[in-house]
C-alpha cells in the first residue's frame, strides 16, 4: 500500500513540535460559493498569482473552487472566461481553454489579455502562425514591451538568431518590468540562446532571471536541465540546495545524484518520484507527461516507455524541451521512424534547434 | 485600451507563462484505506496538514506554523468534517464511522494527519457504497484515493466532484458466510448484554433450591433442579424467539425506550422474587412473560445490523441460534457451580440474598435511567 511507503505514522513527543509550515491564509471559496462574479474573479486571481510563485496545484484548485458556479456556463462574464481558460491551460485541456478564449474574443474582440493568453497557448502547442497572429492583434490593442516580447518569443523557434538579437535588445526596457514578466523574458531569451547552441548566453539569461525571480520553479528547472546537459552535476546540486520539496526540482536532483554516483540519494528520490507519478496517474491527471518521460528516460532508463510518454507529450506541447526529449528517447530506443517523424515536423514547421540538428 | 481596464498585460505574463510547471508539486490528495470484516469497519484516512488547516483552521494562533498541540486541539472539528464528508452505507443502510486516533504521517510532499477510523456496517451487505466529498467545495481538484478491502477482494477508487459516490457489489450473498456472521453476532450480543445475563442468572440461582417454611433449602436430588432449569430456559428462549422474529420481520415495532425500561424492570422483579418468592414452582411463567420483552431488545440490536435481502429468514435464524448458544454457555457454567454450592450457607445467604439484592438495586437504577426518571 502506498500509504506505508514513507514509514509508520507517529505521535509527536510534545505539543510544541512544529509539524508543517503553512502558506499564507487566503480567502477560498465560502461554502455555497461567491455569488458575485466580479468578486469571485478577483479572489481567484489572488490564488492564480500565488500559484505562479508557490507552484502548489492547490492554489489552482482554490481558484477553480471560486469559479465553480460559472465553471460550465457558456456565457460567463469576460473575466471569468479568461481565468477559466487559464486554469484549463494549466490542466492541459488546451482545446477547452482555446474555446473559452474564442468565446470571449468573439464577444470582446479588444480584450488584450485574452489575445496574449491565446498566443501563449498556441505557441506552447507549436501553432506558431496562429500565435504570431494573436501577438499582432495584441500589438494593435496594447502596444508596448509585452506585445514585443510576445512577437519575438513566437518568432524565436524559427529564427533564434534574428529574434534572439531582438530579445537581447529588449534588455534595458525589460529591467523596468515586474518580476514575473522579467522572468518570462529571460526564459525566452535562454531558450533562443539554446536553440543557437550559445550555452553561455543561455546561462547568463537564467542567472539574471533567477536573481529577480528566485521562486520561479520552471526557470530553475530549465536552468538545471542546461547544467545537466553540460555534465555539471555538482552545480545542479548547488542550484537546487535551498529549493522547496517540489517534484519538478527533485527530478533534476535525482539526475544529478545519478551522475555523481550517490546511490542512496538516488534510491530515495527515485522511490518518491515513482510514487508521485503513480498517484498522478491514479488521479487521471495529464500534465505530468513531460516529467514522467524524462524520469523514464534518464532515471529508469526505460527507453521504450520514455518514447511512448514523450510522444504523447509532444502531441500536447511542442516547446524546446519537448522536442529534445522526444529525440533523446527515440535515439535511446533506436526508433528510426520516430526520429524521421520529428525531423519532418521540424522541416515542415521551420523550427530550428542546433542540438536536434546535430543528432539526426 | 478600454477593455484592458484592471487587466494590464502584466497579468497575462503572470497567468499564461509556464504551463509546464504543472507537475511542480503534488496536488491535493487524501488517502483513504478501509477494511470491512463481517460487520466491522476499520482503516485510516490521511489528509495533508495543509488541507487540514484549510478544512478546520487548525493553525489556531495563525503564525502559519502548525504544531502538534494545535493539530490535537482540532481533532474534534476534524472528526466532524470527516463524518459529514465521508459516508459509507451497506444495502442503503448507513454504517457508522468514527475517528478513534490521531497521529502524524510523513509523506514525500509533506506531513499528513493520520486518522484511525472504526465503525460498523449492517451485516452481510451485498452492495457497499461510499460517498466522499471532503474539500470538493473549496478545491475541486482535490481527490480522495480509496483502497478498500471487502468481501475478500481489494478495490481501488478515485473520488472527484464528478464522481463522488461509488458502489461495489460484494457478492456477499453466500448463505454460509452470512449464517456464520449472524450466528457470531448473536453469541456476541448475549455475552455483552449484561441485563440479559443478570435476568437469566436471577432466574437460575433458585433452581437448585426449594422454598420451604419461609426459607430456601437445597434440593436433595439433581433431577428436579435440571427440570426447573430446562423449563425456565425453554420458556425464556421460546418467548424471546417469538418477539425477536415478529420485530425483525417488521410485524411488530414497539418503541425502543419502553422495551429497554421493561427489560430493566424484569431484572428487578426476577431478583426480588428470589428474596421473597411470589412465584417459585412456576418461575418458567416469569421467564416466558419477560422473555417476550427481552426478545424485542434482541430485535433492536438486530435492527442495527440489518437483515440482508434474500437471506432474511436464514440470518434471523442464525442470530437467534447464536443468542441461544451464548445463553446455553452461560447455563452450562452457572448451573453446575450452583448445584455444587447449593448446600453451603454462603450460597443462600450471600450469593442468593445479597446477590439478588444487588442485582435488584442496579436494575432499579437502570429502570430509573431508561424511563427518564433520573438523567444519565
Q: Can you characterise this structure?
A:
By secondary structure, chain A is mainly alpha-helical. Among the domains of chain A are: 88 residues; 73 residues, no CATH class; 67 residues. Chain A contains 20 helices and 1 strand. In chain A, helix 12 packs antiparallel against helix 13. Chain B has 11 helices and 13 strands. In chain B, helix 6 packs parallel to helix 8, helix 7 packs parallel to helix 9 and helix 8 packs antiparallel against helix 11. In chain B, strand 4 and strand 5 form a beta hairpin. Chain B has 376 residues and is an alpha+beta fold. Classes of the chains: A mainly alpha (360), B alpha+beta (376). At the A-B interface, strand 1, helix 1, helix 2, helix 3 and helix 5 of A face helix 1, strand 1, helix 2, strand 3 and helix 3 of B.
Radius of gyration of chain A: 21 Å
- Largest sheet features of chain B: 6 strands, mixed
Query: SS-based structural class of chain A?
Result: mainly alpha
Structural class by SSE content of chain B: alpha+beta
- Please give the number of β-strands of chain A: 1
Number of helices of chain A: 20
The succession of helices and strands of chain A, N to C, reads EHHHHHHHHHHHHHHHHHHHH
Most strands sheet of chain A: none
Basic shape of chain A: globular
Largest interface: A-B, 102 and 66 residues
Strand order of the largest sheet of chain B: 6-7-2-1-9-10
Q: Could you report the average pLDDT of chain A, rounded to the nearest whole number?
A: 91
The end-to-end distance of chain B, rounded to whole angstroms, is 72 Å
Report the order of strands and helices of chain B. HEEHEHHEEEEEEEEHHEEHHHHH
- What's the rounded overall pLDDT mean of chain B? 84
Signal peptide (chain B): 1-24
InterPro entries (chain B): Put_HupE_UreJ (IPR032809)
Transmembrane segments (chain B): 190-214, 226-249, 255-272, 284-302, 314-338, 350-368
Pfam family, one (chain B): HupE_UreJ_2
